[in-house]
Every structure is written in C-alpha cells, then in structure tokens.
Amino acid sequence: MIEANNDAFNKLWELNPEITFNIAEGFNGISREAQIPAILEFLNIPYTGSDPITLGICHEKSRAKEILSYYKIPTPEFLVVYPYDDYLNIDFSLPAIVKPVAEGSSKGIFNSSVVFSIDELKNQINYIHLNYNQPALVEKFLSGREFTVAILGNGKSAKVLPIIEIKFDQLPKTILPIYSYEAKWILDTRENPLDIYECPAKIDDDLRQKIEKVALRTFNVLRCRDWARIDIRLDENGIPNVLEINPLPGILPDPKDNSCFPKAARTAGMNYQEMINAVLNEAIKRYGL
Ligand SMILES: Nc1ncnc2c1ncn2[C@@H]1O[C@H](COP(=O)(O)OP(=O)(O)O)[C@@H](O)[C@H]1O
Ligand SMILES: [Mg+2]
To answer: Which of 43, 63, 163, 231 is most buried, judged by most C-beta within 10 A?
Structure first.
C-alpha cells in the first residue's frame, strides 16, 4: 500500500513495482485524479485504469460533456459559469441542477441544488463559487429514472455488469429525486441503511439495450481503460442521457456500505477479491504482461 501523498513519488521509484492498482483520488486541483497516474507514466510503471488525460477530462464534467456532444451521445444541456459570467440568458428551461464542475461523491450536490427560479439559480451558483472555489456547472434537470452502469474490460471486449437503478422512492417524500449528498451520506448510514439500489434494474430488454449501448459507447469515446462506472438518467422522452463518467469508481469493500461497482460485481457473481483481480487482469492483458 502506498499512500498517494508527498512521499509517493520516491516510494514508487524505489519500489518500482511490476504493476500498480491505482485508487488515488489526489488532493489538489481539478486534475487531481490524474496526478498519480501521471507520476506512474513518468516512472514507466504500469497501472490499472484510465490514463491521466481521461481521468482529468472525466473529473472536469463539462469537458467530458463536450466530448459526448461531439459524438452525439445524449447528455443534459449545460452551461459552465465562472464568477462574474453572465448566465442569465441560459437557453434551456428551468428546473436546472447546479453542481461543482469537478467534484465527486455528491460533494456540493444537495436538495437545494435543484433550482426552479432565476433567484434560486443565482444563489446556488454563488454558493458553488464561494464554497468550492471552481466554476459551477448548470445542467438541465432530468426527471426520469436513474441508472448507473459498471463496465469491465477494454475496447470492443468491454462488458457491462448488471445495471443498477437508483430507487428514489426509498428517499423521504420531502426531498427531491436526486442522489444528493444527503441521500448518499446522511440518510444512508450503516445503522439505518437505505435500500436504494435495485440490481439488476427492473427494465425491459429495449431499455436495457439502449442503456448498455450508450454506456459502452461513452466508455470508448472517453477512452476509458479496464473499468469505469457511467451515471445515466432518462430525459422526459425516456432517452438515456449520460450524467457523468467515473473512471475511478468508488469501491467500498463492505456490502453494508452502499457502493455501486462492488454491488454490480456481486450481482454478476464476483466477490470483492474477484472484482479487484478482474480489473487487475484487464490491465495485465492490456500491457501484455
Ligand atoms: N442533469 C441532472 N438531472 C437530474 N439529476 C441530476 C443531474 N445531474 C446530477 N443529478 C443528480 O445528482 C447526482 C449526483 O450528480 P453527479 O453528476 O453524478 O455527481 P457526483 O460526481 O457527485 O456523483 C446524480 O446521481 C443525480 O441523481
Ligand atoms: Mg455520480
């Protein structure tokens, strides 16, 4: 185990491992998830998962959405707002959701992030600028069902694991149907777990195929490697839209802690160890080790 701190470079250099299983999220800056993989590339040490370019782009959600748009993969309409930008002429209708442009784990995403008026929009954009020191990502709010898709593999042989649906009916009626900070970390605890994942999702074959297709295409156009998890939500026409790509998905080991990738892997018949080894094996194959 090497902590991804200031000593990491020297430790990796001295140890010179055959391969590294990367789970480092980094501390500083919008490209923080790219930093340890960049060091590993510098040192010529093979590692699991996506390269620094993909990790950086996916962490900066608006950049990833620009690429999705180029490939005509549906993603909610959006606007990136820096402090002092003029954002009052957004060309899509409210409600919108306002998020930090580069966070994860629902940081900065609360019930109040969904805005129904220009006043609320202003407040929420200010809130992001003041508290997260980064641009705000304003997105059209999609009210449809939400899914998350874990993927294992590379290129044409990448495979989807069983799809998870986020069941908002498990949340109190007083809060909005989003997988917010409240839903992930406050309402869902070990003592009082929320039964919020349905895996495999109860969907018909047609929708399943559409979701799988869009997830795999997203994985490939973002040039993800070995594994990733794609968050998807249906728009008002039932079309799967990509919310974001997680090339470094959370993998809490204890089944009591809700964690999507391990949950999908368990549903596919893999225990935690087998899931980790499956990711590692994809990297080993990719490097030809
Ligand atoms: N455009 C949107 N429309 C509806 N819900 C959204 C939208 N964007 C985000 N959400 C909700 O907020 C949650 C967290 O957003 P996400 O972009 O996945 O951030 P994180 O990186 O923190 O997981 C999503 O799982 C979803 O429930
Ligand atoms: Mg997400």
So the answer is: 163
> Atom of ligand 1 at shortest distance to CA of 141?
3
Task: State the Cα–Cα distance between residues 27 and 159, nearest whole angstrom.
Answer: 31
* Residue minimizing CA distance to atom 24 of ligand 1: 179
Ligand 2 center from residue 205 Cα (angstroms): 24
pLDDT tens per residue across span 233-259: 999 999 999 999 999 999 999 888 889
Residue 129 Cβ inside 6 Å of ligand 1? The answer reads: no
Which tokens hold the place of 189? 């605890």
Q: Which residues of the chain have pLDDT under 50?
A: none
The CATH number assigned to the domain with range 143-287 reads 3.30.470.20
Residue extent(s) of CATH 3.30.1490 domains in the chain: 78-140
Which residues place a Cβ less than 5 A from the ion ligand 2? 231
CB atoms within 10 A of CB 13: 12
Report pTM.
0.96
Environment class of residue 81 by beta-carbon count within 10 Å: exposed (0-12), middle (13-18) or buried (19+)?
buried
Cite the residue boundaries of each domain of the chain with CATH code 3.30.470.20. 143-287
Q: Is the CB of residue 76 below 6 angstroms from any atom belonging to ligand 1?
A: yes
